Amino acid sequence: MQPVWIIDDDRSIRWVLGKALTREDIAFKSFATADDALRALSHDVPQVVVSDIRMPGSSGLDFLQALHQRYPLVPVIIMTAYSDLESAVSTFQGGAFEYLPKPFDINHAVELIRRALEQNQRKSGEAQEVEAAADILGHAPAMQEVFRAIGKLSHSHATVLINGESGTGKELVARALHRHSPRVGKPFIAINTAAIPRDLLESELFGHERGAFTGAAAARRGHFEQAEGGTLFLDEIGDMPADLQTRLLRVLSDGNFYRVGGHQPVKANVRIITATHQNLEELVKQGLFREDLFHRLNVIRLRLPPLRERREDIPLLAKYFLQKSARELAVEQKQFGDAALQYLSTQDFPGNVRQLENLCHWLTVMTPSQIVEIADLPPEWRGEAAASMTPSGDWCAALAQQTAQALQRGDERIMDAFAAQFERTVIQQALRHTGGRRIEAATLLGIGRNTLTRKIQELDLENQER
Predict the structure, then answer these.
(1) 291: closest CA among 282, 304, 301?
(2) In the chain, fewer beta carbons within 10 Å around the N or the C end?
C-alpha cells in the first residue's frame, strides 16, 4: 500500500502525526515543503495527503491542484492555523477531502486519515481503470499503432520524437513511454520550450551557478539534473532557439553539459523524448532547425493522429471525459444522447482531444439536464449544428434538437405533434414527386391508397394539393 504523505513546514506537526501513524501501523512520508512533495510526485503516488495550507514556496492548495490533475481520486486533508471562511471555502473548492483547523485533536486527525484511506481503497479499482483508460483510450487503427509502439519500446531507452497537432495528447504518450520503460522509478520532467522566455530557457534546462547572472543568488539545478536517471520531455522542440539547439546536441552527443556560469561538466543520464506540431524536415530545409540535431532526435518517431482521423473514438472519449469531469467536480455524471454523440462524431475538432475534453467539462458544469442533447451544446456548437441540418444533413440530429427544445419549453403531447409533422412532410413530398398521383404516391410510401386518402383528410392537405 502507498504511504500517507504529511506536508508541513512545522517540524513538530510532522513529528506528532508521524508518531500517531506509526502507532496505527500506517506507513507515511514527511515533507517540509509542498515543492518537495511536488517533486516526489514525478515518481511516487500517495495513498492520502495531509497538508498544511500556508508554507514557504508553493501552498497546500497549489499542491492539491497539481495532485488532482494527475491523480484526481487521492484524498487530501488540508490543515491550517487560519480558521477563516476563505481558507475553508478555498479548500473544498479545490477538491479537498476534509478541512482540519489547527490546533487539532490527534485522535480526530487519525480518524480522518483512516476515513480517507477507506475511501481511497474503495475507489482504488476505479482509479486504476481511469489511469488505464487515459493511457490506452482509442480503438482507431492509428491509435492501436501508437499503443503497439509503446509496447515495443517498453524495454528501450531510445530517444523518441512525437509528431502531432496541438491537443492530440503528446505529453500523455510521453508519460506512457516513461511509465512503461526501465526508468519508471525515476523522475519524469516535462517542459514546453515554447512557453518559457528565451533568456530563461537555458537556465531552466541546464541550471545555473550562483552569480551567473543578475538575480542568481544561489545555484540552481536545471531540468536535466532534476530528471537524472529518468525522462526529460521537451514539448514543442521546433520552437527551441538555435543556440540552445547546439547545447542540446552536445548533451545528446557526449552526455555532458555545463550549468550557466559553470566550468565543471555535469553528467546527464536522461532519456530524451521530444514532441512538436511542426514539420521538422521543413524547418531543417528553411535553416530554422539543425539537421544534425533532427537526426539525433528522430531515432524513433511516433505520429499521433488528429481526432478527425479517428472519429470512431469520439464517442468513447466523450463518455470518458464526462465521467472524468463529474468525478473531479463531485457531481452526478451526465450522459450523451445518441443524436448528440452522432453529431459530435461528424465534427473536425481543430483542438483535438483537448478541445473535446474542454467541451465535456463545460457541459458538466453548464448543462441542467442529465442527458446531453444537441440543444445543450455551447452556442458556437449549436450554430454549426443548425448549419448542417439541410435536407442532405442528419435529420435525426435535427429531430433531436427540436425535441430537446420542445421539452425545455414544457410542450405537451410532443409525440403526437411530431408524428403529424412527420407524416405531413413525407406525404407532401411524395405527392409533389408524383405530380399529385395518389396511387403512385401510396405505392412509394408503402401504404394503401385508402390510408393515404385518410391521412390527407386528417392532415388537411386537400387544399394544398390543388
Answers:
(1) 282
(2) C
Q: How many CA atoms lie within 13 A of 414 on its CB side?
A: 13
The two beta strands, 256-257 and 266-267, are antiparallel
Angle (deg, nearest 10), helices 314-329 and 352-366: 50
Let me know if the fold of 141-304 is the same as that of 414-465. no
Secondary structure (DSSP) of 349-377: -TTHHHHHHHHHHHHHHH--SSEE-GGGS
Q: What is the pLDDT of residue 395?
A: 63
Classify residue 153 as exposed, middle or buried by CB count within 10 Å of its CB (0-12, 13-18, 19+). Answer: middle
The pLDDT value given to residue 398: 66
Query: What pLDDT does residue 362 have?
Result: 94
Return phi, psi of residue 302, to 5°: -115, 135
Distance between CA atoms of 272 and 178, rounded to whole angstroms? 10
pLDDT for position 358: 94
Count how many Cα atoms sit within 13 Å of the Cα of residue 438 in the half-sphere of its side chain.
14
Q: Does domain 310-394 have CATH number 3.40.190.10?
A: no
- Write down how long the chain is: 466
| Backbone φ/ψ region at 167: left (φ over 0), alpha (ψ -120 to 50), beta | left
**Whether the model pTM is above 0.90:** no
Domain positions in the chain are: 4-122, 141-304, 310-394, 414-465
Q: Please answer whether residues 142 and 307 qualify as being in contact, where contact means their C-beta atoms are separated by less than 8 angstroms.
A: no
pLDDT, one tens digit per residue, over 297-322 is 999 999 999 999 998 889 989 998 99
Cβ neighbours of 417 (radius 10 Å): 13
pLDDT at position 232 is 94
> Do the beta carbons of residue 138 and residue 176 sit within 8 Å?
no
* Residue 138, pLDDT score: 77
Rounded to whole angstroms, how far apart are CA atoms 6 and 16? 11
Q: Reply yes or no: is the peptide bond before residue 103 cis, omega within 30 of 0.
A: yes
Residues in the chain, pLDDT under 70? 1, 81-96, 122-136, 211-217, 383-398, 401, 408, 463-466
**What pLDDT score does 396 carry?**
65
CATH architecture entry for 414-465: Orthogonal Bundle (1.10)
Q: In the chain, how long is the greatest CA-to-CA distance? A: 98
**Which residues have a Cβ under 8 Å from the Cβ of 22 and sit 6 or more positions away?**
28
Under a CB-based contact definition with an 8 Å cutoff, are residues 117 and 26 in contact? yes
CATH topology of domain 4-122: Rossmann fold (3.40.50)
Q: How many CB atoms lie within 10 A of CB 226?
A: 16
- The CATH code of the domain at 141-304 is 3.40.50.300
